[in-house]
Every structure is written in C-alpha cells, then in structure tokens.
Amino acid sequence: MTAAARFFCADAALERGDTLAGTAPYGSVWVLIEYRGGWPHNGFDGLGLAPEIKMLVFGAARKVRARILLIRRHGRLLPGGGPRRWAVLRHGTDGADRQVWGAWSRDQDLAAIVDALDAPGEPGHPPVVLVCAHGLHDVCCAVRGRPVGRALSERWPHLVWECTHVGGDRFAANVVVVPDGVYYGGLTAGSAVTTVEEHLADRVHATHLRGYTDLFPPQQAAVAAVLGRAGPAGRHAYAVVSTVRDHDFWRIRLAGRPPVAAVYDVEVRSRRTPPHRLTCQGKSPSSAMTYEVTSLRGV
User: Fold this and answer.
1) Per the structure, how many domains does the chain have?
2) Residue 114: CA atoms inside 13 Å, Cβ hemisphere, count?
3) Distances (CA, A) of 123 to 110, 129, 179
4) What is the pLDDT at residue 282?
5) Is residue 3 part of a domain?
6) How many CB atoms lie within 10 A of CB 154?
7) What is the greatest pairwise CA distance in the chain?
C-alpha cells in the first residue's frame, strides 16, 4: 500500500488552469520590516516584539489600510551584516510613488513607522521587488518562491527581498513590485527574471500578471486582457475611464495615456468556481471568484 502523494496547491492550480488575472489584493500602502529570523505563520502579528510597539504600528497601518510584510534578503543575512531596515511605501495613481526608509535595532525604533505613515514620503527611489517565500504559511511559497528569490537576488541584489504572505498561495511563485502595486504569479526562476526585467523597463506583460493593486478585480482582468491583445505597456499606460456593473457583469472602458492612444471597451463576467482545495494548509474545499473577459473591442 503506497502513501498518498503530497498535495501542492500551486501544482493543483496549474492542473486546473486557474486564472491569474483579477487576483491581486487591493491596496496602495505597504509597511516593510526586515526580520532575518524565522517568520511566524502569521507574520508580523506573531513576532515577539514589545506589545505596545506592535499595537502602535498595527493600529497606524490599519488606519491607512497598509499591508505589513516582513522582509529579508535571500539567505537572510546581508553581506557583511548591517542594520535591519524598515520602509513605508505609497503608490500614486499618477506614477509619483513615494518611499520612506529607516533602520531599527530595538523594538522601540519601529515607532518611527507611525510618523512615516503620516509623512508624504520621497519620490525617486527605485522600486522594491518582493518574492513571497513564507514557507511556514504555505509550503508552495517556499518550494517555488525561494528559487525565484535566489535568481532575482543574483540579478538585482539591492532591489529584491523575500517577504511574508502576499496572498494567492496557489499562484506561487508570487512576485510583487512595490510601490508600483503590481502582482505577478505562476513564476519560475527563468520567467521571473524576464518578467522583472521587462517590468523595470516599464513594459508590463499579461502572461504572469495577477493585477494592479489600485484596481478592483474586474478592472484588473480588463487591463490584463488589453495587454494580452495590444501587447506589453507601461504601468500607467491605461486608465480606467468608467466601470458599470450589472449583477455579475461589468462594462469597463480603458483609455490609453500618451503615447498610447487606444480606447477599449471590455466586458467582464464573474463566477464562482467549483469547490477545490486552494491552499496547502487548507483541508476543506472552497470556491474562488474568477473574472472572465467575454468581450474586448477597440472604440
């Protein structure tokens, strides 16, 4: 009698052909905290920090709907050591992304994050490339994320960090570029290097795109469909002009920003999938919402 094969949610999602587009969580502010030790299952919430500091940071982040992620360099330690860092990153819809960076050695130093969340931040910083490698949260994030983290770190050692759970375990390996607010999924070491290289050249491709975090899922699906039809384009190449919902259907108009001159009308339909086991940790089947583009035409 043979033992049952181990379940991997990312393998199952690939076999089912789960749709990537429209799966990026909404958000425009991120708090990054470097933590080189083992990450608890629940990330920042599980750290053994001074309770008053943890509550202070969490409360300030919640007010602006910021996501708190633990980060570390691939291999956990910087060459030659160095102070631990923290950052507050904000996405601007006009492309004027802003960042604030600091360092910490004591728990109390993290209180500076509260002031940074109230500050406008500084433009001009390069983007941060995050690779979800939170194996204690989901094994696929480690099995698929760490090789991607290694490959990207070798290419861009100063831009790339491994991070805790970003959502969508079944789409591992997941890469998030912040504060651009762009989620990519289903990546391998090879495709991740190509995808990030194109992203840094301001060419977003539809192939591995999960979505833009400043858009809602049907809008994300519409943008991905346009990129798939018209070809790669800059992060801010298309603006959502209008979104009209009729029950499970959306009619979305996208207009290109210069130098893109095209306008597209996209129709999107939402539906729930049959129940499946969606994560490695989850034992009970559950359904997911998907967004299917039913019509795309130039105006």
Assistant:
1) 1
2) 13
3) 22, 17, 11
4) 81
5) no
6) 12
7) 64
Residue partners of 57: CB distance under 8 A and separation at least 6: 31, 44, 68, 110, 111, 113, 114
**Rounded to an integer, what distance in angstroms lies between the CA atom of residue 97 and that of residue 103?**
21
| pLDDT for the residue numbered 82 | 74
Name residues of the chain where pLDDT drops below 70. 1-4, 76-81, 94
Domain assignment present for 166: yes
Q: In which residue are the tokens 């923290």 written?
A: 86
Q: Which two tokens stand for residue 209?
A: 């795109």
What gap in Å lies between CA 237 and CA 33, rounded to an integer? 31
* Residue-level pLDDT at 4: 60
Q: Can you tell me the distance from the alpha carbon of 66 to that of 44, in angstroms, rounded to the nearest whole number? A: 13
For residue 152, the enclosing domain spans: 9-215
Q: Which pLDDT does position 78 carry in this prediction? A: 53
pLDDT at 203: 97
For residue 280, tell me if it sits in a domain: no
> Residue 187, by phi and psi: left (phi above 0), alpha (psi -120 to 50) or beta?
beta
pTM to 2 decimal places: 0.94
Evaluate whether residue 223 is within a structural domain. Answer: no
| Residue among 94, 161, 100, 143 at smallest CA distance from 125 | 100
| Domain CATH number, residue 154 | 3.40.30.10
Region label for 167, one of left (φ > 0), alpha (ψ between -120 and 50) or beta (otherwise): left
Residue 1: its pLDDT value, please?
39
Q: Which pLDDT value is given to residue 76?
A: 62
